[in-house]
Description:
This protein has helices spanning 79-88, 106-120, 136-148, 167-180, 191-203, 210-215, 218-235, 247-258, 270-273, 298-310, 352-362, 368-382, 466-474, 480-485; strands at residues 6-16, 21-29, 32-37, 43-48, 53-56, 58-63, 91-99, 124-125, 128-130, 153-157, 183-187, 239-241, 263-267, 315-316, 400-410, 429-439, 442-446, 449-450. By secondary structure, it is α/β, with parallel strands linked by helices. Strands 1, 2, 3, 4, 5, 15, 16, 17 and 18 form a 9-stranded mixed sheet that branches. α3 (136-148) runs parallel beside α4 and α8 packs parallel to α10. The longest helix is centred in the middle third of the chain and has 18 residues, at 218-235. The mean pLDDT is 97. Belongs to the metallo-dependent hydrolases superfamily. Hydantoinase/dihydropyrimidinase family.
Amino acid sequence: MTDTPFDLTIRNGRISTASDTFHADIGVRDGVIAALGPGLPPGRRDIDAAGRWVLPGGIDSHCHVEQLSGMGIMCADDFYSATVSAAFGGTTCIIPFAAQHRGDKLPDVVADYARRAAEKAVIDYGFHLILSDPTEQVLQRDLPELIKNGITSFKVFMTYDRMKLDDYQLLDVLEVADREGALVMVHAENNDMIRWVARRLVERGMTAPKYHAVAHTPLAESEATHRAVALARMMDVPILIVHVAGLEAVQVVHSSQALGLPIHAESCPQYLFLEAGDIDLPGLEGAKYCCSPPPRDAASQQAVWQGLTDGTLQLYSSDHAPYRYDASGKLPKGDQTTFKDVANGVPGLEVRMPLLFSEGVLAGRISIERFVALTATNHARTYGLYPRKGTIAVGADADLAIWNPERAVTISTRMLHDNVGYTPYEGKTVRGWPEVVVSRGRVAVEDGELKVERGSGRFLQRGTPEPVLRQRLNGNPNALVRKYFTNSLSRQG
Ligand code: DUC
Ligand code: ZN
Ligand code: ZN
């Protein structure tokens, strides 16, 4: 078999991309898809995918790994456990955050995350920034430099006392993103509405985890979403609203898009499969389900399904924010922990794709092509990785997941590979599972075993996000800020 042109051939699979489904073989050489078609010659390694669906490996563009939260709590997953867990769930690329806390020097923050990821990651990864301290140094020197080095997106918070930017700072950040060619991701919740309600709840002894969902009222989300849209509109720059949870927030995004505004949005499994009622458990158990925004009600779940189906929401990410149900994470004050102290976030890296495959595709809510778009292709396009990642095409990285659509799996903490110690989806049975996962041509997961080495994942320098490129073509030269303060939409990125 020494004269074979391929290191790996995957034959007889049913392949889906974001636009097409067809039967073909895939020939892989040097980590890249080298051929696609019927009857390819055998590879040094041959995988028969008859009866299986061969899909692009997932890209999870919103997850928190080895990151200190705004409250100073370290995530339970490091770059090894997080990337192993991702791979077992069919994800071959992640974009977690390098998080700046106030006073941190941005280049040092990035260097620190880069070093830890390079030592441990088993699949490819990029970074977004989290900006909490947009000083002149950050805005004028650090961000332009980091964007040139392939970190072309950053998240900003409208809530959390220690992370939030005020509207003036948000405008500064949007201006830099526009000038330098980056995409701003917005956590849209009104800090003062949440603080005001939370304080009164605590004063009245209503401290159980379920009150987290009361304090984080859907109005705080929809108000901030609306304000973020207005700020982006004034600056005429695209933004991406992350983790959209509530019906009204979906409506704000939808109506902005109907006006032709470049508003992009993401949602997550917890807003499809959990409800606020899940937080209402005895004792502090509900802390396991506390995330921000919190899961809402059936009408909001339905709105999120609709948004994912009709294109209002382009991305489906895990927002994996892993905290153990103990003093290291969810319960920093033991049995005295109030909902205000609980570390915000739920795990989901490994089950993100199986949940949507089962409840979206096999249950008939979305097509397989839409599944691919929502879990892989749109992430690559949105964050400057396309067409290297996120599709099955000659020349693309061979990042693939071979799904058995017949296999039923009952989700349990025991079978997962993260370090969280619980899953919000314990006991839920899904149909369909990614049995073989290929990362840059290397079989990463097979027969329930990890086949790749710690530290073998690679950092991805990302290009200019497509929303930014589109805005340069379609932006409004008469938008207030463009008309008076900038000359052109066609800047270098
Ligand atoms: N926002 C996130 O994106 N993840 C976890 C917590 C939060 O507030
Ligand atoms: Zn957030
Ligand atoms: Zn998050």
